[in-house]
Amino acid sequence: MKLKKFITVVAMTAMVGTLAVGCGKSDSKDNGSDKKSESSWDSSNDITILSREDGSGTRGAFIELFGIEEEKNGEKVDMTTDEAQITNSTSVMMTTVAGDDYSIGYVSLGSLDDSVKALKIDGAEATAENIKAGKYKVSRPFNIAVKKDMKNEVAKDFINYVMSEEGQKIVSDNGYIPVDGAKPYSGKEVSGKVVVGGSSSVSPVMEKLIEGYKAVNSKANVELQTTDSTTGMTSTIDGSYDIGMASRDLKDDEAAKLQNTVIATDGIAVIVNKNNTTDELSADQVKTIYTGDATTWDEVVK
Predict the structure, then answer these.
(1) What pLDDT score was predicted for residue 74?
(2) d(CA 85, CA 171)
(3) β-sheet bridge partners, residue 223
(4) Which of 55, 125, 162, 264 has its CA 20 to 30 A from that of 175?
(5) Residue 110's pLDDT is what?
(6) Whether the Cβ atoms of residue 155 and residue 194 lie closer than 8 Å to each other
(7) Which residues contact 215 (CB under 8 A, 6 or more apart)?
(8) Phi first, then psi: what are they for 279, rounded to 5°?
(9) By C-alpha distance, which of 110, 136, 133 is closest to 123?
């Protein structure tokens, strides 16, 4: 695997502070506003490329959907440039892009907020409606998985709730695309504990699903652990998690040991700083950025 720079929250804070000092903002007398005007954005600047850590389901889906992985000697190789800075969660990705005028990154559509700007890809906006209509093609499944011989009755009942009308309404209300054919929840108040863990992209909607389930079954103790998709699958295989979460399809070796269920469909939003005057990129342009073929904004924004 390529060695890449890893952003921690501390490093990110230092970066933002350095930018503020470098721009003379600490001495400004503009009523505390340190936001650059949109007109000052300069496309000749280098692109700050942000990606997720190895094991992230969002990264795995992103490089697959944009053709950033290539087949070499029978194996798929991630061609993300060594210059990419690595963030370890959705929240760090969002905060880092919000603090760097020349950055580009990607997050789960359901996690998107107004601190950053989502780009159109090939002319289509990143919305649930466009994903349903097949216009926005950068989407992936949200999976949960259990051991094929799983006997935890609380886990089984919780999955029934997730896939019910009530659970799928929570999925829809939080900006994701629900599965078709859901029926009303008809579970029973089983008691005990279930551990759910994995993808940081699935985690926000899973937290809402757990809240909904506890409202109908107060006897259940559902614990959520946020890690990444690969950890979600391996920890379910070894028994640390009862239910694993993955924001990608299961790999062959995982699928051989686990039973998966698609609980929602999610888009991946390509995000930039709000000062960036770019509103749209093609899928090919995104690929040239992430493979390092384009290093400044004016190489992709004409």
Answers:
(1) 80
(2) 31
(3) 195
(4) 55
(5) 87
(6) yes
(7) none
(8) -115, -15
(9) 136
In this prediction, residue 33 carries a pLDDT of: 44
Is residue 64 located within the same domain as residue 80?
A: yes
pTM of the model as a whole: 0.74
Q: In the numeric block, which tokens belong to residue 136?
A: 């926005």
Which parts of the chain sit beneath pLDDT 70?
Answer: 1-39
Number of C-beta neighbours around residue 193 at 10 A = 12
Is residue 247 within 8 A of residue 266, CB to CB? The reply is yes
What domain count does the chain have? Answer: 2
> In the prediction, which pLDDT does 39 show?
61
Residue 107 — φ and ψ, nearest 5°? -145, 165
**Predicted pLDDT at 35:** 47
Domain that includes residue 19, residue range:
5-138+268-299
Residues 147 and 242 in one domain: yes
Surface-to-core class of residue 215, CB atoms within 10 Å of its CB (0-12 exposed, 13-18 middle, 19+ buried): exposed
Quick one: 100 and 166 in the same domain?
A: no
Round to whole Å and give the CA distance between 147 and 259. Answer: 6
CATH (domain of 208)? 3.40.190.210
Q: Are residue 148 and residue 81 in the same domain, yes or no?
A: no
**Does residue 175 share a domain with residue 91?**
no
Residues 100 and 163 in one domain: no
Task: Name the residue among 264, 261, 243 with its Cα closest to residue 155.
Answer: 243
